[in-house]
Amino acid sequence: xxxxxxxxxxxxxxxxxxxxxxxxxxxxxxxxxxxxxxxxxxxxxxxxxxxxxxxxxxxxxxxxxxxxxxxxxxxxxxxxxxxxxxxxxxxxxxxxxxxxxxxxxxxxxxxxxxxxxxxxxxxxxxxxxxxxxxxxxxxxxxxxxxxxxxxxxxxxxxxxxxxxxxxxxxxxxxxxxxxxxxxxxxxxxxxxxxxxxxxxxxxxxxxxxxxxxxx
Amino acid sequence: xxxxxxxxxxxxxxxxxxxxxxxxxxxxxxxxxxxxxxxxxxxxxxxxxxxxxxxxxxxxxxxxxxxxxxxxxxxxxxxxxxxxxxxxxxxxxxxxxxxxxxxxxxxxxxxxxxxxxxxxxxxxxxxxxxxxxxxxxxxxxxxxxxxxxxxxxxxxxxxxxxxxxxxxxxxxxxxxxxxxxxxxxxxxxxxxxxxxxxxxxxxxxxxxxxxxxxxxxxxxxxxxxxxxxxxxxxxxxxxxxxxxxxxxxxxxxxxxxxxxxxxxxxxxxxxxxxxxxxxxxxxxxxxxxxxxxxxxxxxxxxxxxxxxxxxxxxxxxxxxxxxxxxxxxxxxxxxxxxxxxxxxxxxxxxxxxxxxxxxxxxxxxxxxxxxxxxxxxxxxxxxxxxxxxxxxxxxxxxxxxxxxxxxxxxxxxxxxxxxxxxxxxxxxxxxxxxxxxxxxxxxxxxxxxxxxxxxxxxxxxxxxxxxxxxxxxxxxxxxxxxxxxxxxxxxxxxxxxxxxxxxxxxx
Lengths: 215, 507
Prior knowledge:
Chain B: This is ABC transporter. The complex is a heterodimer of chains A (215) and B (507). Chain A has 215 residues and is mainly alpha-helical.
């Protein structure tokens, strides 16, 4: 386990995550920078956009150019992915705390609710990546997953039905109900993600002839 | 294997460089353009764009569109396609890196900057497709017989130009930051920029930096009073798209060519000219025309007399006179006394002094016998206008309607609604809380009316009677029904209806 830690940590796409996280912090600080900190009308949107930016960076987290060569190592895929996620978790927690602290205290939305939203975005990114690895054959599912996440993020506020509102303002009376829905979504996404962590016993489609290095 | 390779004669050594071929660039552009149209994000964006546009098309202006609003309504949705194009073009530019074919391409006759040109050209088919969609959307509304006003070509160009701009951004980003994560993150960054630029605290000039600029007000103004720098904004967008495209060329080795450098300089100049033009605010003469149209609309209006009614409308709304006349004739035919031949003026009035910055309420007309009509029609506006006509027929002045709180409300509402196809549905439409029982506020273009529970009860009973019988009863007792201070009890008694039990006091 300890032997695995260093090589895994070295191969992780830290720069991509840093880019996403940096942009996210900039977004979270936007209300303060624009002087909109007093009214706080744009705070939930800024925090949601920040969480999306970080999730987009994290969508590349399971990219591994050497996946085909590591398929045969004794450590299972669940363990290898688990290790990657374990390395991400403290970074994500620290980053989200920093993002929340960038929002002025009086206009900060309820922390638990907005955190569930951010966690769902991150879980969706990682689950997408895990499923792409599980179902597909590629070594770098990142761009496709990021595209999927972005399309979802753009379309869901547009297409979300009125009686199943998800993107509500903090003062709204639908806030608790909406966050019950967010929690349900988070649970579903996490279960799906857990199911995708394993290495499939057999491929779902006919494999073309490939060498172990994937060329 | 060895035998065959040695059998091939080695290529003749050429001393002159191969002639650069634009055919290869166009072939590559056609291939990339076709591929771009079939990318999943672009297909999804187009599906949502088309579904949204078709769904909205049935609801524009309640079936009575004003073309100066329709042109602006085409701008928002193409941004969605633009974002998908940005994402897909960026991935297409990076494809040769992703599959490590950069080395193979670098031995070809097409140098990198020409491949960039091909990627830029590949955005053109999507742009044209969006332009066709925008054109169809506008033409569909413009061909409706109920459409009024004039569209602006510059406003219609914004949708396609923003797709072009986003596509050029995708290519530039592919040359500037050749990592896959850059595309999605740029989109989030653009979102941040648009939030900054359109924040309520931002000044006028920064509002116009984003592709699609919305307005705070949904009011419809005559097209010459809108005062949006649409042509300058289209110039700014075209210049910006060109600048971004040429910057991508400069970055990929086109900097050696003086034509590219000169083009880039010209494109930046074009952008700056557009940005300067669009930031100058509302021209002086438009501001004056707005004040004139608000304070003294009769100076610019044309009037048409039909029977006893004169219809005065801004020139663009001339064709709508017939719709107004239909409602006025319906209301007059149900009223009694001298209401058939009393002269009325239906005057179109607007509050244009604040442009499209905010919605302002119109004050009721102080002139006797003058009814106000707004710039929108259909939906709730039609029964609201009928109520306004009935108020003026009963009380003589629109200004008086706010103070009316007696039994006259019953004949007013009945003459307004009984001629409508579904009176109870229209009653629900004109009442603020959408109720058909109890007391409520009745909306109109200017002053509101108050209906008490008792008024509603008597009105509903009157509407339940057969229309001819109710009309006979109302006309026979018109003078008593429309006398000031008549009580609701008395109105019910005169009409031969049960006395109302509900409360009969205005708040």
